[in-house]
Write a structure and sequence with these properties.
Blueprint (H helix, E strand, L loop, with lengths): L3 H13 L1 H25 L1 H12 L1 H40 L3 H14 L3 H16 L3 H25 L7 H23 L3 H10 L2 H37 L3 H38 L2 H28 L1 H8 L3 H8 L2 H28 L4 H25 L3 H29 L7
Helix pairs in contact: 1-2, 1-7, 1-8, 1-11, 2-4, 2-5, 2-6, 2-10, 2-11, 3-4, 3-11, 4-5, 4-6, 4-9, 4-10, 5-8, 6-7, 6-8, 7-8, 10-16, 11-12, 11-15, 12-15, 12-17, 15-17, 16-17
Length: about 425
C-alpha cells in the first residue's frame, strides 16, 4: 500500500521522459529511503502493541493505546529532521555526483516533493496501527484516496504543463506531496485516532508516556539502523549508477519501480507476521509463533515466484509501459535488458523471504543481532559484490543489481536461521 503512490510517481515521471525519470526517480528513492528508516525505527511500537494486547485486560489495552500515541509523537520529531536531511543530500549530490542537467532536475523535484515525507511517516504509523487492530480496510481507503489524488493531479500536470521544461518537475513534486497528505489525513480520520491520542496524553501519567517512548526507541533503534544499512547501501549504489549517465540511471529506476510494485505483498506479510508472532510471543505460545512464520514463508515464496514469472513473461510490455524514450535505453543496452529482468526476479524472491523473517524477528523483539546481520549482508556482501561486479560486467548497472541480489540472499538466509534458532528455545536473545 505505502509504495503505491511512489510507484505511480515513477510511472508518471517515466511518461515525461528519461531525464525526468532519472532525476525525479532518484528523489523518490531518497524520500522512500528516509521514510522507511524512520518508519523502521518507530515500527517496534507495533510489536509492543501486539504483546500488550496479547496480555489482555484494561491495562493491556491502555498500554497499547499509549504506544500508538508515543509513536505519533516520535514521528513528528523525526520528520522535521528528515526533511532537512533529504534537501541536504540532493544539494551535495548535485554538486559532486550528478550530471548538471540531472542535478538541476533532482533539486527542482525535491524542493516540492520533500514535503510529502512527513505525511508518509505518519501514514506508516497509521498503517501499522490499522494492521494491528484489524482495520486494514480503513488503510486501503486512505491509500486509495491518495492514489486517486496523485492520478488526478499528475493527469492535469501532464496535460497542461508539458511545455514548461524541467519546471514541470516542481509541479510533479507538489502533486506527490499533496497525494501523501491526502492519504495521511484520510488514515487519521478513518481510524478515528484522535480519541486515542486524547486518552493517552491527557488521562495517562507522564512517567508512563516517557516509559513508552523510551521502550519504542530502545527496541526500535537497532531495526532502524539495520534498515538504514540496507537502504544506505542501495542509495550509494544508486549514486554510483547516476554518475554513469542518464540511460543507466533510468534503467535503475525502471528496476526499482518493478521491485517496489512486487514488494507490496512482502511488505504486507512483514506487517502481518510481525503482529501474529508478537501476539503469540506475548502469550508464551512459541509453537504457534513457529507455525505462523513457516506458513508465511511458504505463502510469500509462492507469491514471489508468481511475480517473478509474470515479470519474465511480460518484460517487454512492462518496459514500454514505464519508459517513454525506449529508443535511448535500447541503443545503450541492446539485449542486456533481459539479463537485468532476470536479476530483478531473483531479488524479488529473496527480498520477500527476508522481509517475512525480519517481521517475525521483530515480533519477538529480537532486534540487535538482525541489525548486525543486515550490516554484514548489505555492506560487506552486497555493496562489495556490486562495486566489483560493476567493473567486470558489460553494463555497470547489471553488476550493481547482482550485488544487491547477493546482499538480499545473504540477509534472507541469516534471518531465517536466526528465527528458527531463537524460537526453538522459546525466547529472543536480546544481546
Amino acid at each position: 500500500m505505502q509504495v503505491s503512490i511512489t510507484l505511480c510517481a515513477n510511472l508518471a515521471l517515466g511518461g515525461i521522459g528519461v531525464e525526468a525519470l532519472a532525476s525525479g526517480g532518484i528523489c523518490n528513492m531518497l524520500i522512500q529511503t528516509g521514510v522507511v528508516i524512520v518508519q523502521s525505527t518507530i515500527s517496534s511500537f507495533q510489536s509492543l502493541l501486539g504483546q500488550a494486547r496479547g496480555r489482555g485486560g484494561p491495562e493491556g489495552e491502555a498500554a497499547a493505546e499509549r504506544f500508538v500515541a508515543c509513536a505519533c509523537a516520535i514521528a513528528l520529531g523525526l520528520s522535521v529532521f528528515l526533511v532537512a536531511l533529504l534537501v541536504l543530500i540532493v544539494l551535495v549530490c548535485r554538486a559532486f555526483v550528478f550530471e548538471p542537467s540531472m542535478g538541476r532536475g533532482a533539486l527542482l523535484y525535491m524542493s516540492s516533493a520533500v514535503f510529502g515525507a512527513p505525511s508518509m511517516v505518519f501514514f506508516s504509523v497509521m498503517r501499522s496501527y490499522g494492521s494491528a487492530t484489524g482495520r486494514s480496510a480503513s488503510i486501503l481507503k486512505a491509500v486509495g484516496c491518495g492514489t486517486l489524488a496523485y492520478g488526478a493531479g499528475a493527469f492535469v500536470v501532464l496535460l497542461f504543463c508539458r511545455g514548461m521544461g524541467q519546471s514541470i518537475l516542481i509541479m510533479m513534486g507538489v502533486v506527490f506531496s499533496i497525494a501523501w497528505s491526502v492519504a495521511a489525513i484520510m488514515s487519521f480520520l478513518t481510524l478515528d485516532i484522535f480519541p486515542v491520542l486524547k486518552r493517552s496524553f491527557i488521562q495517562h501519567e507522564w512517567p508512563a508516556i516517557k516509559s513508552s517512548c523510551a521502550a519504542i526507541i530502545h527496541a526500535g533503534w537497532p531495526v532502524g539502523l539495520g534498515v538504514a544499512s540496507e537502504m544506505s547501501a542501495n542509495t550509494m549504489l544508486a549514486m554510483f549508477v547516476g554518475a554513469s549517465g542518464v540511460a543507466q540511471m533510468s534503467v535503475h529506476q525502471l528496476c526499482q519501480s518493478i521491485e517496489l510494485l512486487t514488494f507490496m505483498p512482502s511488505l504486507a506479510m512483514n506487517q502481518t507476521v510481525s503482529i501474529r508472532v508478537s501476539y503469540f510471543h506475548g502469550k508464551g505460545e512459541h509453537d504457534r509463533s513457529r507455525i505462523a512464520h513457516h506458513v508465511a514463508m511458504v505463502f510469500i515464496f509462492l507469491v514471489a515466484l508468481a511475480e517473478a514469472a509474470t515479470i519474465l513473461l511480460f518484460h517487454n510490455p512492462i518496459y514500454r509501459a514505464i519508459m517513454s524514450d525506449t529508443g535511448v535505453v535500447s541503443a545503450r543496452f541492446g539485449g542486456g535488458l533481459y539479463d537485468m529482468f532476470l536479476v530483478v526476479c531473483a531479488v524479488v524472491v529473496f527480498d520477500a523471504l527476508q522481509a517475512t523473517s525480519s517481521g517475525a524477528l521483530r515480533g519477538k523483539l529480537d532486534m540487535k543481532i538482525p541489525m548486525l546481520m543486515a550490516v554484514t549482508s548489505y555492506w560487506i556482501v552486497g555493496f562489495l559484490f556490486a562495486m566489483v561486479l560493476a567493473r567486470l560486467t558489460p553494463q555497470p548497472i547489471l553488476g550493481v543489481w547482482i550485488g544487491i541480489c547477493a546482499g538480499v540472499f545473504c540477509s534472507a538466509c541469516l534471518q531465517t536461521v536466526r528465527f528458527i534458532r531463537i524460537n526453538s528455545v522459546g525466547r529472543a536473545e536480546m544481546t
